[in-house]
Amino acid sequence: MNHAPLFPARTNPVLTHPAEQRVRLDGAWQFRLDPEDRGLADRWFETPGALGDRIEVPGCWQGQGFGHEGKDTVWDFRLEARTFRATYTGTGWYGKSFLIPQEWQERRVWLSFGGAHPSAEVWLNGHRLGANNLPFVPFGFEVTEGLRREEENWLVVRVHEENRLLGLAFNWQGNWSGLYRGVELVATGPSFVRQVSFVPEAETGSLRCRFSCGGVQASRSAKLRISVRALPDLSPAAEEEVAVTEATVEHVISVPSPRLWSPDTPNLYRVDVVLESQGAVMDALSERIGFVTLSTRGKHFLINEEPYYLRGTGEFLSNPETGCPDTNRDRWRKKLRALRDYGYNYVRCQSFVPAPEYLDVADEVGLLIQSEMGSLGAWGGNTQWHVYAWPQPSPEYHAALLRQWNLVVERDVDHPSANLYCMSNELGAQTDFPRTAWQCYHETKARKPTAMVIWTDGGYNADLPGDFVNDDASKDASCDKPVVQHEFQWWSSFPDVCSRDKYQGAVRPYAAEMAQEAAELHGLAHVLSQAVPNSQRLQFVEAKGKMEGCRRQNATLAGICHFNAMDANPSPQGIIDEFYDLKYADDETWRQTNGDTVVLASLGFNQRVCTEGDDLECDLYTSDFSHPPMKHPLVQWEITAGGESCRSGEIPYSHKPYRTCPAGTLHARTPAVASPVPAALRVRVGEGDRWFDNQWCLWLFPRDVAMPADVVVDGEPRHTWLAEWQDLSRLPSGDLPPGPARGRVVLTERLSDEMVPFMENGGRVILAASEGLVRPFRPKFGFTLGHYFFTPPANYPPYEDGHDGTLITQHPMLGDFPHEG
Questions:
Q1: How many distinct helices (H) and strands (E) make up the chain?
Q2: How far is 162 from 393, CA to CA, in rounded Å?
Q3: Average pLDDT, the chain
Q4: Residue 746 confidence class, pLDDT cut points 50, 70, 90
Q5: Cα(781)–Cα(795) distance, rounded to whole angstroms?
């Protein structure tokens, strides 16, 4: 029997044509785990009764509770945890009975699978159709000859462990498996459209079309009717007919003055295609496209010839609802809209490829997506320094990696969002496979000329392919291409034990459970509800300061990929949580740091505490990537204390768009205050009706404070009593007056040798350490204190360093210090 395979198959399209004939097989399937892998020998593919459980498709079986209660390995963090509702690595079997529609009796029929991980083998009515071992690739078969037309058909899929490595970071949170996208039947006439690709050319207003058709050789009158309409109003843009005389048809359609796609204006077009023969519809489909041009010029990354500051985030396939790639477009609309609201305009999928449903929504909201398919080796590792680059494109994996890469490019060719492609993670400055790198580059450009391709994210080599560079910002000075700051940076808050009830889906709140268990072990469970928001606030303070510092200090940087916008269960690195909901800062606040146009200040963390009457000096900058940019903006600043404005001014400056531009220096004397008060520096830049704001917290203290009679400051000459006490302490112990230190409090910045006997004799010391004492810090990956001040990098072992859970309680020695907990 002929079961012609189809790679990649078109499954669950965002648009369907009214004449398309498509039946979904999603929903309840029969199921059975096969831990001993005996289903093949026992021929489970023949008998429906062999599969006695029920499971939902799409999804992963671990997320639906199939397996055991043991632990899995979250290998990047060296964690052992039960991450999904159940744990299981091995084989599972799916089965589904179905009838075909009555009107399909004379039609050709195709069976397609949106995705199976790790690998799949398929039978229909006991006959083997074929297999697929490429986890990112949708696949299908023609089943016309093996189909029962008048009775039920029995479809069986065996999902097994072969090529789990080709799923790359699909498995970072533990091993999941299953049919993670939909399963469908499609009917056509004798002729059909096998594959379509559209290359919109924004510069020329042309749509280059390529159609791969089957069964047309026997037809003498086959033609394609193609219509192009702008969304959402469906205004006509073009409509043409093309004769089909060969299996491959290429055609160019003129679309005058197309509406362009960009993060600011994600304009989309609907393309309807109908294949007709002798007046009858053979096949039909609808696709969405966007006219966008990506390029570079000097140090700028251009979208439609305009410089854009790339503000990216990492994505780790952390989908708590499903545990596997989520195919719910409504859920992604809420989540990806949140990313845009928080100022992000691109997403780097860390060593994996997102599902097409994700890209559908990215098309709608205006996000560029970087797929990372590991053709030079993917993210891996279970040591502190990682074990990168597996599987490498050595002989046993080269063909599969290259085939998966090219089929994914074909799968996503019509998505304007899917325009960034990366071959590896952090290979540094070299690879052992440069020929593979150039092969991927040229073959991708041939399939999708609009795409930007880089050989690694986290490395630079001028002799390897890269339309731009993603590496440390320090490379910007020596590189002639646009440079995007790589993985900046992993500030983490405390696992949110207060949000455990939100985890009602496939993934368990295992990080919060571990935090709760550790807190109970140390007798600290009662402080968690306060430690969580405190840690989130500290995380925000550090993220704001470091993100703005990176943009300020690197004037010609093309962008920053912040790692990450969202939490990822064991690593709560996000500005928003794992469900893309609010943590500490709302979207308007974060856009002050992460927007198209940002006003920046040189205030360091050590310049935020001031005494009344101090001369506050601060350099100001602008980074203007608005479209269009400002021409002659003005800087206005204001200092508030206790909510009241006390200093303000204006600074005219010479504005330079599309780079970080000096905007003058602020000079101000801090106002008098009677007690410590929170203050703020607020700066805005703009012209006309366009203004951009930012602000930074300050703390103001009185210059002179009357100390209580029993409090003295160590080191001040007028206080001689300590020296006198030290003289007394030199007397034989029997001659020492009882409790000479009682009632005294010493305020000191250093713990001197003299203080120890003083405290032993009843004295009290307030240690206000400003220099010389730092928090315990365990460097990770060579990172220094300057990288992570308040929070540790991600949640790598030993999990106990950092100030993630800082608590300040009310205490007389703090007086009216404005600590806010």
A1: 9, 46
A2: 17
A3: 90
A4: confident
A5: 13
